[in-house]
Structure formats: structure tokens, C-alpha cells
């Protein structure tokens, strides 16, 4: 691959690299700092006076917020990598995106072992993988709808 081709392809990966850095920065937060973010979100949810939220146990709501954040972070990473591989015309873009996302989740949990007040948990890698699964489902649905639309337009011609 020549230099120009490499530069053309690598530009599509810049958003996913930036997103990995953002995830890394969240993982660098010490335990108390990370908890403060959750307290803020819980307080905002409570202030909305949503009946279901007001009656939830604080620890459960905190757990729910944390795990939703994990799923969302890794869903975004998966989709950014998928887009990059797709635009770069790589083959097996879904598989490559999924493997890189899950491996990054593993390294992120390992990194958290060295951050005061944080723990690396294999359970969180599984939670992060839910983001990948959601991404795969969305891609599947999108492609199915697109194929139906193309098939339908071919029939009406």
C-alpha cells in the first residue's frame, strides 16, 4: 500500500482513536471522581420527578447508570470502527470492529486495576460487549431494510 492510500484510509480511523482516548480518560478518573459523576446524574434524574426513578434504590440506579454508560461507550466505539473499516474497504469489517472493541474493553478493564478506587472486572467486558451486539443488530436491521427497499423498487419497475 502506498503512502497516499495509507493516509486516505487512516483518516477514517481518527474518530475511533479519539473515542478510545475519551474512554481512556474516563478510566483514568479515580474512584471518588468517577462516583461524583454518577451522583450528579442520579440527582438530575431525581430532580426530573420521574416516579419510577424516585422510587429506585440509589445503589441500583447508580449501577444502572454505570452499566448503561459502558454499553453506550462501546456501542459508539464499535460503530466508529465499523464505519472506518467500511469506508476503507476492508473485508470482514463487522468482525474486525467487534474484535478490536472487545479487546479494547479488556485493556480498559486491565488499566483500571492500576487506578486508585477502581477495579477491573471481567463482568464489565461482557457489559461492554452488549454495545457491540446492539451495533451488530442495528447494522443487520439497516441492511435488511435497505435490501427490502431495493427489492421493492426492482419489482415496481
Automatic annotation (TrEMBL):
Keyword set, alphabetical order: Membrane, Transmembrane, Transmembrane helix
Membrane-crossing segments per the record: 12-32, 68-85, 97-114, 126-142
Residue intervals of the VanZ-like domain: 14-141
Record has Nucleotide-binding as a keyword: no
InterPro entries linked: Phosphotransbutyrylase, VanZ-like
Entry-linked PANTHER family: DOMAIN PROTEIN, PUTATIVE (AFU_ORTHOLOGUE AFUA_3G10980)-RELATED
Record-linked NCBIfam families: vanZ_1 (NF037970)
Protein name in the entry: VanZ family protein
Species, as recorded: Clostridium oceanicum
Lineage: Bacteria, Bacillati, Bacillota, Clostridia, Eubacteriales
Amino acid at each position: 500500500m502506498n503512502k497516499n492510500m495509507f493516509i486516505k484510509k487512516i483518516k477514517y480511523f481518527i474518530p475511533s482513536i479519539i473515542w478510545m482516548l475519551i474512554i481512556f480518560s474516563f478510566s483514568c478518573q479515580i474512584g471518588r471522581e468517577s462516583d461524583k459523576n454518577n451522583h450528579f446524574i442520579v440527582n438530575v434524574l431525581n430532580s426530573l420527578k420521574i416516579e419510577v426513578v424516585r422510587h429506585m434504590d440509589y445503589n441500583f440506579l447508580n449501577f444502572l447508570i454505570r452499566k448503561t454508560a459502558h454499553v453506550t461507550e462501546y456501542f459508539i466505539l464499535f460503530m466508529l470502527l465499523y464505519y472506518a473499516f467500511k469506508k476503507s474497504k476492508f473485508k470482514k469489517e463487522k468482525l474486525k470492529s467487534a474484535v478490536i472493541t472487545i479487546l479494547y474493553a479488556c485493556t480498559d478493564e486491565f488499566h483500571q486495576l492500576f487506578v486508585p478506587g477502581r477495579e477491573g472486572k471481567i463482568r464489565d467486558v461482557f457489559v461492554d460487549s452488549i454495545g457491540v451486539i446492539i451495533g451488530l443488530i442495528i447494522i443487520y436491521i439497516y441492511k435488511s431494510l435497505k435490501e427490502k427497499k431495493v427489492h421493492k423498487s426492482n419489482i415496481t419497475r
